[in-house]
Amino acid sequence: xxxxxxxxxxxxxxxxxxxxxxxxxxxxxxxxxxxxxxxxxxxxxxxxxxxxxxxxxxxxxxxxxxxxxxxxxxxxxxxxxxxxxxxxxxxxxxxxxxxxxxxxxxxxxxxxxxxxxxxxxxxxxxxxxxxxxxxxxxxxxxxxxxxxxxxxxxxxxxxxxxxxxxxxxxxxxxxxxxxxxxxxxxxxxx
Length: 190
Prior knowledge:
Elements: H1 2-25, H2 28-63, H3 74-91, H4 95-105, H5 107-123, H6 125-135
Helix pairs in contact: 1-2, 2-3, 3-4
């Protein structure tokens, strides 16, 4: 937390120096108008980005899981997140944040950020799964099962190795009593 505050203070000092230098070379009013225009563009980009992500977020909030048929394409999601991030950066008054916003909108930079995020997820999937299990109320090494029932999970990942590319499914089959209610309609049929 202390590092974030330190970076924010240094960032603010650099922004103030750049504001001052720009105002000296042009005019304070031009710099002020630039910030107003950047804020208006930022609000517009933020609205566009959130408009594409909002249905997905509401569906996850209501049902917990994203319906695969309703999921937008990966490129659409990346562009929407980039637009929202650029909008937030443009709302922050400053020259550096405006330049970062312009960089985030560029497709090659988006591709690099997507590759970095994918690599991060692949390298840290176990930590992410443990965090998700903890948020659901369970513990990876024992405790309450987040999927119901009593007892721990015996150290197993409740989500399995979803990011590993296997072609076989490991597990055991169990018989289901005949008095169990059967699902006649799938979740996607409405």
